[in-house]
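Recall that a protein's primary structure is simply its ordered list of amino acids. Everything else, from secondary elements to tertiary packing, is in principle encoded there. The following example makes that idea concrete.
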Amino acid sequence: MRGSPRDGSQPPAARASGVLAIAGPLLDGLELIHRTGTCNRDIKPGNVFIREDGSPVLLDFGSAE
C-alpha cells in the first residue's frame, strides 16, 4: 500500500511521529504494570493491537510474571 509506514515513502519525521504515537502509550502502560510487580516477557509487534482511534493495546499477558 503506497504511503504506508512499511514502504518507506513517508518522511522520517512522519515515521518517527507514528512510532512515538504507539510507543509512548505502550511504555506508559508497561510502567504501570511494572509498578505492580508484573513483567510481560512477550512484547512483540504481533501482541500490539491498534484500536480504530489509533491507540495501542498490549495483548497476551500469558508470559507475564
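The mean pLDDT is 82. The chain has one domain: 11-58.
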